[in-house]
């Protein structure tokens, strides 16, 4: 059934239609600076489609709870345990009830944890409840940040993974993501890239205008137009909206947010006794509990160690103490050999797979200083890359092959936390080893969940990097079209053990 909802008007006064059925299959990205009318657009979309499709809104500021009065949405407070949120999300899908998950009053880390848990609950619902749902996430850059912030790595990874599942794999489960962000540059690229429909509003920074122009297929010189858009004006593109960039004006809404944009209002007439009014204390002030500001959070040890490692010696020759031997300078080859030795020590730890990248990086910096490795240490991104390559466990001969170099180039197309899993699978295919089991894939990702391992394979397949199939015995095979190789059959439920290459492959 094709349903076109009215989003407003285009040039000439014609109605701007949005095909809901097409939107469910192709997803939507909304971008606009604060005050551009982004929330107004989402409210118009939700109001117009409320009677046609189930809706779930992730609301960090509590602005959309007013939909409950007119359209019957259930308001879910995000200040709950993970088990409660998963249970509510499951029943939301089972009974096809629209809801608003309000995260108002929670700090950023609690908001990310609650949103990620709730989205995973929607995603993990049983197949019989995969009804179509419009999942709207406001301020998506909070839940899918392009870079790490002040939150823990565990929470960031969980929230980003939930958003990635929503936008990359949610369509098959009936979940249609509608994400809105103030800045495209702050939104993870692998999340934004999965949207096929775009509504771009006013923005001022060059990097955001350039990305908006690229997404709309416009010339970079046309990007300046995004500075001149008025409030409530957007440029639409996508199969559910228009095949060519189309300026539209968003129509009015029937409900309103609890918060609104500040407006000027005249100051009251100053009373005659204004000084007494201000400086005379209220008697109740002395009985109220004193609220003390929390001390600033201590700097992470990782940052301190990195700063110490970057400290350069003073210019000029350093006098040597009598009788103290001069530390010999290392050649680039010797330094690289020591770096590899440090990385091997870290990765050989059985618990290293379940430690965060930040903890491993801190351990690396300490070990590097203990061995007096000269020069600046590698950055966090390079460290993650080196760890991913080391965990793949390729020998020197394989590392020099053209196939492995191609695999390294392909791994750049996935996020840093997934490169280790991808390279492990590529190595198994290049050496004709059995396909790694679910538990071995999960361990490479740093989790104990076999279900999450299967999700990773599905994500790689949706990205066009691999093809997963089974043989007549039910064993799994992972093929790499770009490498023209595939793994040997392997049992998905096999225990976590290093694979043994086929005898004929070894010979």
TrEMBL record:
Entries under Pfam families matching the protein: DUF87 (PF01935)
Region named Disordered: 312-336
Domain AAA+ ATPase: 24-310
InterPro entries: AAA+_ATPase, ATPase_Atu1862_pred, HerA-like, HerA_central, P-loop_NTPase
Top-level lineage group: Bacteria
Name this polypeptide is given: AAA+ ATPase domain-containing protein
Species of origin: Pseudorhizobium banfieldiae
